Amino acid sequence: MITRSKSIDQQGQLKAAAEMAFNKLTPTIFHEQWWLEAATRGRVDFVEVTDGGRTVGRLPYMVNSRYGLTSSNMPTLTHFLGPGIDDGGGSEANRYVKRHSITQELIRKLPPLSSFRQKMHRGVCDALPFQAQGYNVQVQFTFEIEPYPDAVIWKAMRDKTRNVIRRAAENFDVHESSDPEAFFHLSAAHLEEKSLQANIDFGVCKEVAIQAVSRGRGHIWVARESATGRPKAAIFCVFDNSTYYYLMSTRAPDAGNGVVPLLLWNAIQSAAAMGRVFDFDGIVNAGSILLFSGFGGKTSPRYIVTKASMPYRVLRQIRRMDSSVTNTFC
Asked: Please, which contacts does 150-158 make with residues 24 or more away whose CB atoms are closer than 8 Å?
């Protein structure tokens, strides 16, 4: 079995993670004020519900305006949101009714918007309150790996995945980096080698990564060629009190396909050592299904709620048609 390299600051980061206090109003790292301030460039807002002077519900959102239409979508690098709810004590049936009621009140407090879209965090077990308010609900699946001992996780993998990781470990050494600047410099260089451009705001991503790493809430794993010491791939992960999220990766064109699975294996071991569920953060295509399923995790649903006015839907359709024409004739 391949063992991971030691973290350069592992004990300090584990201590910081252990000291995190769970707050039902901030159920994930993506709900925390510092994250949202960095991810939205300070443009985050909240609706809240109180009970007896105590806040029992909070829903963060960000508003953009274009062509006179207002929309709220997921902030940069913020992979999950949805309501944070303090449902108190009592029976599960009573708490469910309370969560449902608080969520509907949060929805009603949102400002008038032409479009709204959010992906719910893993603590949202259904999206019925949104459906009751006229929102559409979709489901995206992710793979999760429970924090079992390394040997148990390793045995649950597909043989092909284990072999790919073994071969990559013969050519690469994995280390943890505390330098987000270097991660995004490497990412930009890899994109340039492939004649591609970033489809995400690297400036915002870099600020989020700096904040996460400085707080002991993020890991950057780097794979260097054993022979030359040159970095060839890296991944960026963050974690909260329960979950360890795989967010970004970069790989040199000549690095080979096994280097990212090797990095993921290091991250999975780190998550397990911290007692966190490892979340692959969404299945978006057939390639990600093939890669993630090889690690032996279980699928878990994430609900996506959307609502759009007719003018916004018409504008979106026009823009899609324009994009299609441009792609055809360029």
From this structure: 150/1, 150/3, 150/269, 150/272, 151/1, 153/268, 153/269, 153/272, 153/295, 153/296, 154/1, 154/2, 156/295, 156/296, 157/294, 157/295, 157/296, 158/293, 158/294, 158/296
Q: What are phi and psi of 51, to 5 degrees?
A: -140, 110
CB 178 within 8 A of CB 236: no
Answer whether residue 25 is part of any domain: yes
pLDDT of 3 higher than 80: no
Q: Give the domain range for residue 257.
A: 10-16+143-300
Residues 37 and 158 in one domain: no
Backbone angles phi, psi at 261, to 5 degrees: -55, -35
CATH number at residue 224: 3.40.630.30
Distance CA 49, CA 87 (A): 12
Single out the residue of 212, 233, 215 nearest to residue 224, CA to CA. 233
Provide the number of structural domains found in the chain: 2
Residue at 161 is within a domain: yes
Q: What is the domain-level CATH number for residue 306?
A: 3.40.630
- In angstroms, the CA 6 to CA 91 distance is 44
H-only helix segments in the chain: 10-18, 33-40, 92-109, 128-132, 150-156, 159-171, 180-193, 202-214, 259-273, 286-293, 310-329
Minimum mean pLDDT range among 85-99, 103-117, 150-164, 274-288: 274-288
CA end-to-end span of the chain: 50
C-alpha to C-alpha distance for 107 and 25, rounded to whole angstroms: 15
pTM above 0.70, yes or no: yes
Q: Is the pLDDT of residue 303 over 80?
A: yes
Q: How do beta strands 136-145 and 69-72 pair? A: unpaired
In-domain check, residue 4: no
Residues 6+ apart with CB under 8 A from 323: none
In Å, how far from its chain's centre is CA 117?
A: 16
Both 97 and 178 in one domain: the answer is no
Alpha-carbon gap, residue 86 to 52, rounded angstroms: 13
